[in-house]
Design goal:
It contains 7 helices and 7 strands; from the N terminus they run ββαββαααββαβαα. By secondary structure, the chain is mainly alpha-helical.
Amino acid sequence: EAWTCITRDVRRSATWIAMENVIVIDCKDHMLGRLASVVAKQLLSGQKIICVRTEDITISGGMVRQKAKYHRFLDKRHLTKPSRGPFHFKSPARMLWRTVRGMIPHKTPRGMAALERFKAYEGIPRPHDKTKRLVVPDALRVLRLQHGHKFCKLGDLSREVGWKHQDTIAELEERRKEKAKVYYQQKKKLLQLKAKAAAV
């Protein structure tokens, strides 16, 4: 699949994508922190962003290390009334949302407005499965993580700490890919027929 790339350029950060209505980012094999920093900057610039396939985001460090870190985070709570927070999200989409929130002044009107422009999902729900999806080269694991370093998937970490929907999302993704494959084969045949007709 050929994706269009988006990059972070400080010199033209306000005009780098010409402020499309909505940008859909395919998060597969992106580093969590690097992706969140690019997303946060663009949200503050006024861009609307939707992140899909958040369960395939990668985190540097092995699963044992990441689980230990998250369990230390679970210990942090309000002493007398835990329902006041902090809230420990366990789904990949909410983990990404919380990471982005930490990079935004979310208690100011500007930060609140920026967060309103951000959505994150596991898998690729409708209608975003029919839209063009972008990648962020500055955050891709193959370009940023050194060879041989350990990493783990955000979806696997979420399952280890209590997220119960990984199998459901995987099943829905398989169905989506099957439908996309059929559509692509039909489209390819149609393009071949058009090319043959044009050549006559």
